[in-house]
Amino acid sequence: MDIQIKWFYRLGFLLLLFIVTFIFWKLQQVWLPILKVTMTILSPFLIAAFITYLLNPIIERLHDSGLHRGVSVLIIYLLFFGGVGYALYKGIPVFIDELKDLSEDVPAFAEQYRNWLSSIQKEAAAWPNGIKERIYDGIIEMEKAIDRFLTSILNGMLNVLNAFVLIALIPFIAFYMLKDYNVLKKAVWYLTPRKWRKEGVLFLQDVDQSLGGYIRGQLLVCVIVGALSALLLWLIGMKYALLLGFIIGITNVIPYFGPLIGAFPAVVIAATTSMKMVVITLVIVFTLQFVEGNILSPFIVGKTLQMHPLLIMFSLLAGGEIAGILGLILAVPVLAILRVGLLHGRVHFAKRKRESEST
Question: pTM value?
Answer without folding.
Answer: 0.69
